[in-house]
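User: I'm writing a tutorial on reading structure tokens. Could you give me a worked example: one chain, its sequence, then its tokens, then a sentence or two explaining what the tokens reveal?
Assistant: Sure. Here is the example chain.
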Amino acid sequence: MLTIEKLNALEILDSRGRPTVQATCRLASGCVASASVPSGASTGTAEALELRDGDPKRYRGLGCRRAVANVNETLHCALSGRAFATQAELDRALLELDGTPNKSGLGANAILSVSLAFARASARQRGVPLYQHFADIAGAPLATLPRPTINLFSGGKHAGAQAPIQDVLVVPAAARTMDEALAVAFAVYASAADLVLQKYGMRLLRADEGGLAPPFSSAEAMLADAVEAIGAAGFKPGEEVALAVDVASSHFFHDDRYHLGPVPLGSLGMIEELARWCAEYPIVSVEDGLAEEDWLHWPELRQRIGERALVLGDDFLCTNPARIRRAIDANAATALLLKVNQIGTLTEALEANHAARFAGWRVTISARSGETEDNWLADLAVGWGGDQIKIGSITQSERLSKYNRLLEIEAETRLPVVSWPQA
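And here are its predicted structure tokens:
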């Protein structure tokens, strides 16, 4: 049993300079651990609610003092002195105290910060690495490291919307180790930076997650430039380095049309455009290829491109077990983008992970655009056997803290990188 002695929280700043929550959990044993939670810019409507203060005079209403107070007062008073045998027991208590379907009572940011801090304190009391503790929670052995999908170019809400799609990412497909994968990504990123200077006359300006964001003429220009950068770095596109695309279609879908280019597309037209991209470019993953509520057409998207690329749901699924089960029943996707703060507790996120795995889906463990230097995501991706990890580019400390943690875990465990997309 693990007895909570004290819970407290602090408002800190994320990588975009916006407030978020850091919680600290002290156990009666004397073990203490802290955890901070990220925040998204591109968010699905079904996500758990981040509690913000709404005061326009302070951080334009984005302050988190109410969420912090909910940890320091409500959660501390209710949970201090209570013993929990498992993470699931603690998370159930958090959900009962919140009492709402979307975490709007206490705030998903408050709830998740405590859920994570308790997990880290539990691992310290057990004397095991956090990744091993996460594996034990999941009831699965450690087997592989996730393969990174690394932001190269950005548009949409992660940049200046100069191109409608959100990100084009590189996948070091032939790399056998995390060390090798990051070296490959660095080479491609450096070549892309040279290309951006030559083609657009633009110095190294980065988007929220570190991707390069020149004034692309179209979404397809992002893909073409990515292939050019791969070749310029000395790699074979599609063999040594592949591409993943975060389309984030919900953000340019309105009036029942996808405003991807000068001619708006219906759902079937959007599917055909994505199928053409997959045929012409070395794309192995398509994230949110359709809008989050375009349920009627997601099965058609899976049928058209599912043999060539992952049909990956982010806003579409929101790490929500109910939406995942609906998508499984409809044959609407082949992969889950797992973001713990979309659902609000580790236990609910694990339920989402298990549901996706039971259906035979791949799982990508993902960071958010507003991140902190906390590196728990790397441990989670290893402990829960993520096929991919999506952190951002190989720049900026909030991204590098996770990549560096993966390198540490690789050195400790000698685990191989998962074989996808080579399998």
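What the tokens reveal: The radius of gyration is 21 Å. The domain at 147-413 is CATH 3.20.20.120 (TIM Barrel).
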